[in-house]
Each structure stands twice: as structure tokens, then as C-alpha cells.
What does this fold into?
Amino acid sequence: MSESWIKMRTSLATNPKVVSMAVDIGVHVSSVIGACFVLWSIADQHSINGRLPGYTPETLDAMCGLKGFCAAAQRESVKWIQVDDRCITLPRFGAHNGNSAKRRAAKAKSEAKNRNNRGHRVDNAVHVSDTKRPPRLDKREIRKTAAAEASNPVAGAGAVDLDEATIQARSAALAERPSWLPPGKRWITAAECDRLARLPLTAEQVEAAMREGRECRQLENPAGVVIKALRAAAGDAGGAA
It folds into this structure.
């Protein structure tokens, strides 16, 4: 019998929200990650829309084993939970929890596996003996690849294709206003986040760009510093910040 599961990103330990919560509560980030696991598991098991009637911050803190967790998760810079009328709500529940999110994750994993299998078939074809007739190339795949490279030269330079669900998730993550950004300063627009989400960026490159923006947060446009750093990391010279 298959076991229930939830999505948790491998970069969660360095997520600015997790780090800021750990600082607020005065614990190690691993304690915050453990509390998040309990929260998201409860929501996955007992909610279909992100609402948990009957749960209070005191109850959830006790179940997570971390006093102050709910207060930190409610902060404006985090917004992972909302509390009203003795009910706890996860505002972005559908992004990572529930059957719909799991289907998207399973689909993305399946597509990545298929791409990997296609890559192995190509590698094997390269090593075919000269005495054997080389395999015929799929013309539809050739046309599809050529069209993708023409529309996105950065992805055509060797980056892995991203499915739309992954792009939307990356765009939403980039759009979240970081806690270090001073009040009144603008953040990256939704249109720019969508563009950046389609670039071949690694988690390390995104974190490096965020650090650069944090160091320049007192400048007039720290968001522009982050955008410029992300484009440079992806080799994208198009557009001005």
C-alpha cells in the first residue's frame, strides 16, 4: 500500500522565510523545517482548501513542538498561515498541498524522467559501431527542438526544459517580497518574475542574486540588482531592469 506524502523543497533550509523564522524564535533552522513538516502534513490530511477549523496557534505550536512557530509564520514577510475565528488557514495551500499539487509534482517528475531516458537513448546512439547503420532520428523531435531553440536561445544552449507548473511555482517564489527589502522600495514585477522563472537558473544562482540584492538593499533599486544578477547568471542580456 502506498504511503501518503507531501512536497518539501530541498532548498528549504536556506529559504529566507525559514531563516528569518528561526532567528525570530531563536532556534536552529532544522527545528523550523520540522515544524513546517508537521503543519503541512496536518493540512494535507485534514483539509481540502487550506482551512483547519478548531486549530488554534497554541494547539499547533504544541503539536509542532515549537513555541512561537505560528506567530513567526503569520509575519507579513512570511504569510504561511492566517488565524481568524479559531481557524488556521494556509493561504497558498494549493501550490504545494492537496491532490492537485501532488499530480503536478508527479507529472513534472515523470516528464523529467522521460527527458532523461531520451538523453540516454541519444548517448547510446552516438556510440553505435561504424559497421552498423545509425538509428533514424525522429523528425518531429528535431522540429520541436529547433522551434524551442528559436523561441528561447538561452534554453536552446543546453538548459533543461521546464514544465508550466514548475515555471509558475518559480515565478510565485520570485514574486514574494523578501523580508530584508526596506519598506517603500519596489520589488520584481509579476511580468519580470515570469520571464526570470523561464531562465535556466539553479537554486544556488538565485540565492547568490538574493544575497547581492540584500547587500545593496539601501540603494534606490535593490530589485534591479537582483534582476541583473539573475540575468547575468543565466547569460540573458535582454531587457533593462
